[in-house]
Structure formats: structure tokens, C-alpha cells
């Protein structure tokens, strides 16, 4: 993230893929200026209708955050907290991402926008994730009981170990992405790096 000399513009850029140009965003006096994949635009702060913050880990970067910004009348841009560096390296840009989003929220609040501020997954998606995890928990419990009943203690130990690893990996994702609303002055810390 870079701040202009006069303090009027704040910028953030990341590479969403190895091929292609960087996605660039700038907070100007007029609004949010963006350049993504050959397209560009300038959205006034009072035109921004919604922001959704979420935690979206991927295999190459387990600590990745995302902000989806929507505009009145259509249009959406996504901002990620990581940038591709090489074929095997995705670098975090935690400080720049966090500072940019905090400044965006401050400018939107100053402009008097009535944007919908949400965090986590959508309620339907979150309910589906919880239902899937419940079914998986029942199935794993059934397997554990079966393994113990027939004396397969190595299999039971494997199931317990797998369940613990799975709970550790998925638990943070589920906890951070719980659907909720937030306000301009109370951004969710768990969804900012």
C-alpha cells in the first residue's frame, strides 16, 4: 500500500494469478478507483452498496482474506490479501490489505454511505457447511465406534488423529466465516490480517 504525498490517495495492488497484470485499487477524493483485468472504473463512496469480508484460505496460502465490494446498479470487485510471486509462492500482504480496507471504511463513513457491511459466508452457504460437518461428524463417530468394537485400535487412532487435524484446519475457517453484520467503526478483527 502506498500513500500519496498530499495524503489524499491510498493505493493497494495484488496479482490474482501468475499470468496477467496486477489488480490495482486507489482511494481518491472522488471515490474508489480500480483497474482489474483490462477494465477500470471509479466508484463514488456513496455508490458502494455492500462490502463482504471473509477468510478464504487456499492450498498455497493458508492465511488469505478477501473483500468483495459491490456497487449500486451492478458491479463487483474482489480484493485479496495475497499476491502471486512465483509458480510456488503466494506472498501475504497483510498490512497493506488491512490498512487499505480500514481507510476505505473510514472514507465511506465520511461520505455517509448506507452500504450493507457483512462478514463471513452467506447464511445459506454457512448452513450448508454446518450441515455437511454434522453429517461428517456422525459418520466419523460411527467409524470410530465400529473400529473400537472390532478391536482395530490402530484404525481408531487413525480416525481420532484425522478428526483432530480436520477440526484444527476447518475449525478456524468455520469460526472466522460465521455470518454477521458489522459497522464502520467496528470492523471484524478475525477477518482482517
Automatic annotation (TrEMBL):
Keywords: Membrane, Transmembrane, Transmembrane helix. It comes from the Bacteria. The keyword Transmembrane applies. The chain crosses the membrane at residues 126-150, 156-174. This is Bll5862 protein.
